[in-house]
Amino acid sequence: MMAHGTTPGLRVTGWTELTRERRLPLKGEVLVTAGQKVDADTVVARSELPGNVQTINLAARLSLDPARVASALVHPIGTFVRKGEVVAVGKSLFGLVSQKAEAPADGTIESVSPVTGQLILRERPVPIEVTAYVHGMVASVLGGEGAVVRTAGAFVQGVFGVGGETFGPLVTAVDHPGATLEASHLTEAMRGQVVVGGAFASHATLERARAVGVAAVIVGGFDDRDLRALLGRDLGVAITGSEDLGLTLILTEGFGRLPIAARTWSLLARHAGRIASVSGATQIRAGVIRPEIVIPLEPAPEHADQGSGARGLDPGAPVRIVRDPYFGQLGTVAALPVEAREIDSGARVRVVVVRCEDGHEVTVPRANVEVLDR
């Protein structure tokens, strides 16, 4: 009997329905209602983080006994003051010398301690807003926390990404999926757009993209050394997506010079000019999260292609390895041994033999590969 299996793959589909939960990190005000249509930049919920605390040692500053500090205040507790504004005045040497204390920042006088003589100044609260992220409709409201947004359209998952959520019109900057995205391809007209490149982009190209104000760059591959330069640190194993890079980067294939898969390229190129919502959030380990490109479509296109994202792991099937030490390598299934084998961790698992593109074969756990949809 021929061995076979099933493994999840990246979804690349011309039509699917999606829901995205949009939730505040703390309770706040929900600004939308169920059934309401929203755009990617529609604010669905808003809240405020308490401002930073500034302390002023009034007892030391004014040469006063801590118990007398409260009487030196110029304004009562709860007053909002501006940076540099006098908040307390004290007199010493029988009233001959007057000393003042000024606010180190804009904020509200929150309290004064008669024990330590410290004044607590609370800076302005920090506003937090959560947007819909995609064009669609509010499916339900999460009381005091946010909303669930439903959308439908084309959907592409990438292998790896960095950078947060963004959106903008799709534009193809090169002629074919195997081309290299060069800095010269990026023009001022691409400000705020989601740029689809080809097989590769260098760190210099991404620097140009940031300078132009590109919202996101989508390419097949990237150099892992350039990734360290882009982030300013080693990535580690944490989830990505919270980096403040000035743009979002999505790799559809992996690390190296890898042409965008033909189906992915065709789908993205077909929808050039449409608004795409993009997230670079990635988590490879447990609780897998993939970077994504969502292209809302209204109405549904005729004969829409609906990729399943789950395909057979059979001999000859094209696959990508998604764990170190071979992360990002492409190849085909050479064999599917029936018996479990011991791996470096000591566990016995079912494995797959992958013939990589350069011809050499590696044996990895089946959970470490995903089937490609070519």
- pLDDT under 50 segments (min length 5)? 1-8
Work out the strand percent.
Answer: 35-45%
- The DSSP helix count reads 4
Write down the overall geometry.
Answer: elongated
Count of DSSP strands: 31
**What is the mean predicted local confidence, pLDDT?**
88
Helix content: under 10%
**What Rg is obtained from the alpha carbons, in whole angstroms?**
28 Å
Description:
This protein is mainly beta and 374 residues long. It has 3 domains: 7-47 and 131-296, no CATH class; 53-123, OB fold (Dihydrolipoamide Acetyltransferase, E2P), CATH 2.40.50; 314-371, SH3 type barrels, CATH 2.30.30. Helices cover 9% and strands 42% of the residues. The chain contains 4 helices and 31 strands. The chain has helices at residues 58-62, 203-212, 224-231, 262-270, and strands spanning 5-8, 12-23, 29-30, 37-38, 43-49, 53-57, 80-81, 86-92, 97-102, 107-112, 118-123, 126-131, 136-142, 146-157, 160-162, 166-172, 180-181, 194-196, 200-201, 216-222, 248-255, 275-279, 292-296, 310-313, 318-321, 330-335, 341-342, 348-349, 351-356, 361-365, 369-371. The strands form 8 sheets. Strands 2, 4, 13, 14, 15, 16, 18, 20, 21, 22 and 23 form an 11-stranded mixed sheet that branches. Strands 30-29-26-25-31 form a 5-stranded antiparallel sheet, with no helix packed on it. The chain is elongated.
